[in-house]
């Protein structure tokens, strides 16, 4: 499991919880609940890393070990 910071917040515009992974540019997921947004964010992290590896792009090291729920 990767230890990237995940920020989850409610978006009125999207009518969903948004989960952003600031250390991985463009890595964003959403869900109807905090739990679903978190689950989707974990999947998005894995896809982001898999894609970076495929193209030989650098993968940032996680800066911390915390999850932030807002």
UniProtKB/TrEMBL annotation:
<dbReference type="Pfam" id="PF15919">
    <property type="entry name" value="HicB_lk_antitox"/>
</dbReference>
<dbReference type="InterPro" id="IPR035069">
    <property type="entry name" value="TTHA1013/TTHA0281-like"/>
</dbReference>
<dbReference type="InterPro" id="IPR051404">
    <property type="entry name" value="TA_system_antitoxin"/>
</dbReference>
<dbReference type="InterPro" id="IPR031807">
    <property type="entry name" value="HicB-like"/>
</dbReference>
<protein>
    <recommendedName>
        <fullName>HicB-like antitoxin of toxin-antitoxin system domain-containing protein</fullName>
    </recommendedName>
</protein>
<feature type="domain" description="HicB-like antitoxin of toxin-antitoxin system">
    <location>
        <begin position="4"/>
        <end position="63"/>
    </location>
</feature>
